[in-house]
Amino acid sequence: MERIRYTAMLRSRLREKNRFIQVIAGPRQVGKSTIIADVLSTLEIPYVSESADDITVSRDAWLKGIWDRARVLAKQHGEALVVVDEIQKIVNWSETVKKLWDEDKKTGANVKVILSGSSRLLLMKGLSESLQGRFELIPVPHWSYGEMKDVFGFSLDEFIYFGSYPGPVDLIQDEKRWKAYIRDSIMEPSITRDIIMLTPIQKPVLLRQLMELGSYYSGQILPFEHMLGQLSDAGNTTTLAHYLDLLRQSGLLAGLQKYSGSEVRKRASSPKLQVFNNALLSSRHPMDFAKAKENDTFWGHLVESAVGTHLINSVTGEDVSLGYWREKQNEVDFVLYNEYSTVAFEVKSGSRTHGIGMDAFLKRYPGSKVFAVSVNNADSASIPLEEFLLANPLSYLD
Fold first, then answer.
1. pLDDT computed for residue 301 by the predictor
2. Please, are residues 367 and 355 in contact by the beta-carbon 8 Å criterion?
């Protein structure tokens, strides 16, 4: 299970010599706090753990106060640990952390540090501005199908429709309530607190509209010109591309670029919209679980988006890119690539039985590998969908 891997990674690093600040970053409700709690429950180091939510005193003074408590523990026990959740809520947090960390290095205080937060965007800004060379990042993606199956007994169909937020699992029998939770307790706080409140946004209404549009069209290529026609006060394509980048860094929605040998062509291509979690798609659609399974067109849409979520979360923190490919009438759904290898994936579900695009892709890029992912397990030439979702997609690059 992925959460176990991140827990083991963090625990191992904290048992090493104190060389780097450990930073855990990821979207809301992916288990960051649980990972830290699991580590603290087994680590034999005294610690001070606090959250930066709802701070009522001077934020610099608050952070220095908990750091000083850890310094006392380190003096008494030889080492101590500071844990701060939602660190991005503290204005100029990175400058304060840098000052405190550097003070400890000068005095020899053995204070280890874990920082975590929901906004990868602001965390990365702070890390790049003040803490270069002082931290290691542990990016935590959304839950995989394997984790949802093992922990909650999710079926393949449930993962395709309900996605992989662990928090509202108990609500899926009441779909109206589940959808409201996804929209009101996950999507809206992610946009409001992790983007709008922390980043200069000139058109917040447009950002919300883009998130809704992108969720609805997840798994589909949508030219910026078409988006402009469906969004009010849309501004220009540069604004939309910027907002898509913000949504991607927050683990909500990405605009995948066309795979090409030319970076210029990649940037100029129409984006393929892709949510990071299928709950963001299903919660925006009026069709319920039972009706969705009976509708071949919509279910095929959900299946392709589910494959996309598996792929896009697999590249989190990796030196691997994800895109799509299309030339004229030829298309493959997803292209996974790094500097050494390129793999194309075609999703076959319901009435979608493409294949010509894969031949065209191989002809255009003869050194690549191509795979079909099929809902129909009887198709021996394809990877069964469940098998694919249980595997690490990066293994296909080997």
1. 93
2. no
